[in-house]
Design goal:
Radius of gyration: 22 Å
Oligomer: single chain
InterPro entries: DUF1310
Structural class: alpha+beta
Organism: Listeria seeligeri
Protein name: DUF1310 domain-containing protein
Number of helices: 3
Pfam families: DUF1310
Largest sheet: 4 strands, antiparallel
Keywords: Membrane, Transmembrane, Transmembrane helix
Strand content: 25-35%
Helix content: 40-55%
Number of strands: 4
Length: about 130
């Protein structure tokens, strides 16, 4: 009787470990896919288009936004679909924008979900000039 319980316990442990490994591998695959999307040329176009919507003179001498970089720690799967990603503007961590990237009809698009308070104020003042 004791031997039977040990065998059952061993099988249960193997199943739990197998499921754990499967979930880990699925998560790793999802993370790689998200990184590939976020660092793609298509995403770069979306980011630059959206930043130009915020600052029409972005990436020019007259614009407020001169550069951006992807904040790697901000990349995560959005439970509603898509990928959340944060961009740091002009290498200033207080100037940031968060976007939700998603595929619509096979085309990547993104909408701003958060614009930092400091960036928002600067853009508001910038438009006055």
């Amino acid at each position: 009787m004791k031997k039977k319980w040990i065998i059952i316990l061993g099988i249960v442990i193997i199943i739990i470990l197998g499921l754990g490994v499967k979930f880990y591998m699925d998560e790793e695959k999802l993370n790689k896919e998200m990184m590939n999307v976020v660092y793609s040329d298509e995403a770069k176009e979306v980011f630059e288009k959206r930043l130009t919507n915020l600052d029409p003179k972005a990436f020019t001498e007259k614009g407020l936004i001169h550069s951006y970089k992807i904040e790697e720690g901000s990349i995560e799967h959005n439970p509603m679909g898509g990928i959340e990603v944060g961009l740091i503007i002009n290498n200033d961590s207080e100037l940031y924008v968060s976007y939700t990237l998603s595929k619509n009809n096979g085309e990547l698009s993104g909408g701003a979900s958060v614009v930092s308070e400091k960036l928002s104020k600067l853009l508001g003042r910038w438009e006055e000039y």
